[in-house]
Amino acid sequence: MKLKEKLIIYYLSAAFMILFFVGFAVLSAIKSLSINTIEQQLIGQSSLAELYITQLHALQNEGSDELSDETAQYVIGKLGLVFGNIRIYDNNFRLQATSKNNTEISITDMENSEILAASAKGNHAYLVRNSTVFFASPIIFEANTIGILEIIYPMSFLESLISGVSNILFVGAFIFIVLMTVISIYIAARLSKPINKLAKVANNYANRVFTPVEIKGSDEISQLSRSFNAMGIQLQDYIQRQQQFVSNVSHELRIPLTAIKGYSEFLAEEIEDRPDLKKAVFHLNNESDRLAKLVDEVLTLSRIEKGSAEFHLDKLNFTGLIEDIIEKMLLRAQKYDIK
């Protein structure tokens, strides 16, 4: 995978993670704020209802311990028009009155008894089930709890709100991802372009093509390009010096080798009556020829590096080569008694 593609994937992955956490945080905050708002609203409604019930209870001259069923039925008829689905229980959690004839609720009797019991202690209590809030509040008259008011509040508007916000977030996220994709491609192309140039230059340097690279700017990549150019100049100078050194040494070796070759041929003519010396001079002549070939090969390598060498392929007499090597090594083998 190329660097440009990796950068695009990294940018988009980061964008997706940011969108996910931001969306989750926004929806959670909206839900929490809505529940708190509903709670405060229900507390306010229960306070108004409690004030109305206690005043009516006092006007009826009833005892301070219990709210009568007649008063509960009368209150429900009035409060049901304002607060919707409400219920009134006595201190024993017996249903005294309800604004809705349907007695089925979406929580169990045990759960309902738990919030009623918590409310009977003088506190507000609520339970959320199936997008409905079951809110219970004590009805207190002269420091005594005379009943419990339960308000059943649907949260359909909250679901609609969250659904609307979710749709807005999804549309915004889609637009954001499209924009991030375009921006990521642009940024990745801008960042990978100079790096691709440096990679191409490094490949050229490996092939001894020292072409300078120009990347404008003052960032780290621009500094790296200038370092590449300086390195290329130094490498080119080093290679030229090396080639010149090899060429000079090869030419300098040719002069003594030519002299050795001439003296060995002269000695070969002067000692024809000495077979032992003639053989030594023969090997001296062969070794000088071998050194001359080595010098020629070094010069050939130097021409190859410069790109000016011409290759001529020819057949090799392998048998003659082996015999020549055996002949050269025979004297040393005899010296160490090797057979």
Q: How would you characterize the overall build of this protein?
A:
This protein has 339 residues and is an alpha+beta fold. The chain has 2 domains: 3-163, Beta-Lactamase (2-Layer Sandwich); 237-335, Helix Hairpins (Orthogonal Bundle), CATH 1.10.287. The protein contains 7 helices and 5 strands; from the N terminus they run ααββαβββαααα. Helix 1 runs antiparallel to helix 2 (69-83). The chain is rod-shaped, with a radius of gyration of 52 Å.
Query: What's the N-to-C terminus distance?
Result: 62 Å
Please provide the ordered H/E string of secondary-structure elements: HHEEHEEEHHHH
Count of discrete structural domains: 2
**Proportion of helical residues:** 55-70%
**How are the strands of the largest sheet arranged?**
2-1-5-4-3
Total of helices: 7
Mean pLDDT over the residues? 79
- Taking all Cα atoms into account, the compactness measure Rg is 52 Å
How many strand units?
5
* CATH fold type of the largest domain: Beta-Lactamase
In a nutshell, what does this entry contain?
With 339 residues, this protein is α+β, with helices and mostly antiparallel strands. It contains 7 helices and 5 strands.
List the helices and strands and how they pair.
Layout: H1 3-59, H2 69-83, E1 85-89, E2 95-98, H3 109-120, E3 125-129, E4 132-141, E5 144-154, H4 156-206, H5 220-270, H6 275-306, H7 318-335
Antiparallel strand pairs: 1-2, 1-5, 3-4, 4-5
Helix pairs in contact: 1-2, 1-4, 4-5, 5-6
